[in-house]
Design goal:
- The chain has 148 residues and is mainly alpha-helical.
- The chain has one domain: Leucine-rich Repeat Variant, CATH 1.25.10.
- 57% of the residues lie in helices and 4% in strands.
- It has a two-stranded antiparallel ribbon.
- Helix 2 packs parallel to helix 4 and helix 5 packs antiparallel against helix 6.
- The longest helix has 31 residues.
- It is flat and about 55 Å long.
- The chain starts with a strand and ends in a 21-residue tail after the last helix.
- 21% of the residues are buried.
Length: 148
């Protein structure tokens, strides 16, 4: 094996340095045999907030592993794409307790983003532009220091 390749200890897939995009690799990784890996990929997709991942995450909601399905719901909330709302609304009413709670949380995240986006759009249309003071920012202080 060359210095530019590695092998997954769980499934034996060889990962070589190639020009394939990260998005393509993440989409393929959603089919990994280990549920922990699929859940981790859902988390990564949610953190990256890429709308291209929404159809993949909606498909993952049929996964056999509960933790993978929960991770997909959380990722859909993080991404905040409105196309996921119908499926999330069904999940919030029909599925098991943990899935309902996660689906409701994802719906809430999407609705908060919608509200913020609408407020910024309204403010920018009234004033013609958005200034840095218009965007709410949560200050982060160091441990033990007060937040400003």
């Amino acid at each position: 094996m060359s210095a530019q390749s590695a092998e997954c200890p769980a499934c034996g897939t060889t990962v070589e340095h190639d020009p394939t995009s990260l998005e393509q690799k993440l989409a393929v990784a959603l089919q990994h045999p280990l549920p922990e890996a699929r859940a981790r990929i859902c988390w990564i997709l949610g953190q990256r907030r890429r709308t291209w991942a929404v159809p993949y995450l909606l498909h993952i909601l049929r996964d056999v592993d509960l933790h993978v399905r929960l991770a997909a719901l959380r990722a859909l909330g993080e991404i905040g794409d409105e196309t996921a709302i119908p499926v999330l609304e069904r999940a919030a009413e029909d599925w098991g307790v943990l899935m309902r709670v996660a689906a409701r949380g994802a719906l809430e995240q999407i609705r908060v983003r919608q509200t913020r986006r609408n407020a910024l759009t309204e403010k920018s249309s009234k004033h013609g532009k958005i200034s840095p003071g218009d965007v709410p920012v949560r200050a982060a202080g160091r441990r033990g220091e007060p937040k400003t």
